[in-house]
């Protein structure tokens, strides 16, 4: 019981110190009315630097970083302690052990057991005063809640709540074993980087701005600004986006380059479905069904549309195994895009299926487009991707990928890519990827390349 009381007291003191945004000192506890009118007689005795209690506390707390009281009063072994201060150090130490799940050595456990017995009177005295301290903290919490409630009525925020910065950087080497029709030079490069700023303006209203520092700020689809929008999830199961977003077209296309399993996107993603545009988008998600749809200016990211033509997109996916997740995750879906670049229209239809079960993943996607590069040009393609985690850190993958632009001036230009890859996750935010890509071009311009990519997330 004594040990549990100490642990609970340590946790309460830690929680209280967090709520008041400062450390709890002995003086703050002693200034409160005591639960018992009789204070421990030994509480006024000083423990100097040569005392075994002092040396033991100094030795143990230096390993776990515990404060005596105020932030400027770090326990550094330069001045004596009162027994109440020593007891508070011990209580905070137990609280830190409980909170951080610290694994003590057998020697430290024995030392702390001896200290508990030596300082039991002071610990009991402080325990009697914690009830009043908690009352004070609860009152403070009530005042803070009232301030937060009043603040919610105001739209004035410096950066909003839950502000955070995330991102990633990729470094790549491509070795062209055999140069063909593709445009992959043999060299080192920084293919993609990403810095995302996001936060909450007020409940149910969020914002996001995503930049790609490895690009230039211009009006092209490779511009510096990738996504920039405000969103709201005030309607249950729905999220509404206003601004520049990824167009919900296809399965792989809307993904970030930092999230895909291969070094390169599929050919249909590179040529048809990876789009960022200005407009409004809505997403809905239920147990067995998810959908997305939007209206865009149709002229791509960082561009103003002057022709007045809008682009429309719709995507739906069924989740037939949602009720039996032990059998894996299965999605079957389709998407459709219809737009115009001011000169001619382009329609794109995709079909996709994705299945993931434990360490195994398999998905496939097909796309068909009219008005690819001119009003009469059609394009189509599909790919099949599979991957498996041999260990928690080592993943192997294979992909078959083909794309046919059906150029009216050259019908024989089908391009096939065969990819074998290995991904190694060094830790949660650092990975290394390597792949061998064999490209077979119908016009005879075959190629082979070896790719290596390192990816760092933050």
Describe the structure in your own words.
The protein starts with a helix and ends with a strand. The longest helix has 32 residues, at 120-151. By secondary structure, the chain is α+β, with helices and mostly antiparallel strands. The protein contains seven helices and 19 strands. It folds into two domains: 2-151, no CATH class; 161-457, Porin. Strand 17 (415-427) and strand 18 (430-441) form a beta hairpin.
Q: Mean pLDDT, nearest integer?
A: 79
Q: Within the CATH hierarchy, at the fold level, what is the topology of the largest domain?
A: Porin
Architecture of the largest domain in CATH? Answer: Beta Barrel
Q: Name the structural class.
A: alpha+beta
| Elements, N to C (H/E) | HHEHEHHHEEEEEEHEEEEEEEEEEE
Q: Report, as a whole number of angstroms, the end-to-end distance.
A: 44 Å
Q: For the largest sheet, list the strands in their spatial order.
A: 3-5-6-7-8-9-10-11-12-13-14-15-16-17-18-19
Which range does the strand content fall in?
35-45%
Tally of separate helices:
7
Number of extended strands: 19
Please give the share of residues in helix.
10-25%
Our count of domains comes out at: 2
Low-confidence stretches: 1-23, 32-43, 68-73, 153-158
Please give the CATH class of the largest domain: Mainly Beta
- Main beta-sheet strand count, sense and barrel state: 16 strands, antiparallel, barrel
Return Rg in Å: 31 Å
What is the approximate shape?
Answer: elongated
The CATH superfamily label of the largest domain reads Porin
């Amino acid at each position: 019981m004594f040990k549990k009381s100490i642990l609970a007291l340590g946790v309460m003191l830690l929680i209280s110190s967090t709520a008041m945004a400062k450390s709890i000192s002995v003086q703050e506890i002693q200034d409160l009315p005591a639960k018992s009118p009789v204070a421990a007689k030994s509480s006024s005795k000083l423990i100097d630097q040569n005392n075994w209690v002092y040396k033991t506390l100094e030795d143990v707390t230096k390993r776990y970083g515990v404060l005596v009281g105020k932030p400027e009063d770090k326990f550094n072994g330069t001045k004596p302690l009162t027994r109440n201060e020593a007891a508070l150090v011990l209580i905070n130490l137990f609280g830190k052990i409980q909170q951080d799940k610290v694994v003590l050595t057998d020697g430290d456990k024995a030392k702390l057991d001896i200290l508990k017995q030596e300082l039991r009177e002071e610990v009991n005295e402080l325990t009697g005063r914690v009830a009043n301290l908690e009352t004070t903290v609860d009152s403070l919490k009530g005042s803070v809640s009232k301030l937060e409630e009043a603040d919610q009525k105001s739209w004035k925020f410096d950066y909003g709540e839950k502000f955070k910065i995330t991102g990633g950087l990729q470094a790549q080497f491509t070795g062209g074993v055999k140069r063909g029709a593709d445009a992959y030079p043999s060299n080192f490069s920084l293919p993609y980087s990403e810095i995302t700023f996001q936060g909450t303006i007020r409940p149910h209203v969020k914002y996001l701005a995503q930049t790609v520092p490895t690009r230039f700020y211009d009006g092209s689809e490779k511009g510096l600004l990738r996504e920039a929008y405000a969103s709201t999830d005030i309607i249950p199961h729905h999220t509404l986006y206003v601004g520049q977003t990824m167009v919900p077209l296809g399965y792989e296309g809307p993904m970030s380059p930092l999230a895909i399993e291969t070094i390169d996107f599929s050919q249909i993603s590179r040529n048809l479905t990876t789009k960022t545009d200005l407009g409004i988008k809505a997403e809905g998600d239920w147990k067995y069904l998810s959908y997305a749809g939007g209206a865009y200016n149709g002229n791509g990211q960082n561009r103003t549309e002057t022709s007045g033509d809008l682009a429309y997109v719709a995507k739906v996916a069924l989740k037939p195994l949602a009720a039996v997740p032990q059998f894996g995750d299965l999605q079957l879906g389709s998407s459709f895009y219809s737009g115009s670049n001011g000169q001619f229209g382009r329609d794109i239809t995709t079909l996709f299926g994705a299945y993931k079960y434990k360490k195994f993943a398999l998905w496939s996607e097909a796309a068909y487009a009219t008005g690819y590069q001119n009003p009469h040009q059609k394009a189509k393609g599909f790919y099949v991707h599979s991957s498996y985690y041999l260990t928690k850190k080592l993943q192997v993958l294979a992909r078959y990928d083909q794309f046919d632009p059906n150029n009216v001036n050259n019908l024989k230009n089908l391009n096939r890519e065969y990819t074998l890859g290995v991904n190694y996750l060094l830790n949660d935010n650092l990975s290394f990827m390597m792949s061998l890509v064999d490209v077979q071009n119908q016009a005879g311009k075959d190629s082979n390349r070896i790719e290596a990519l390192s990816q760092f997330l933050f």
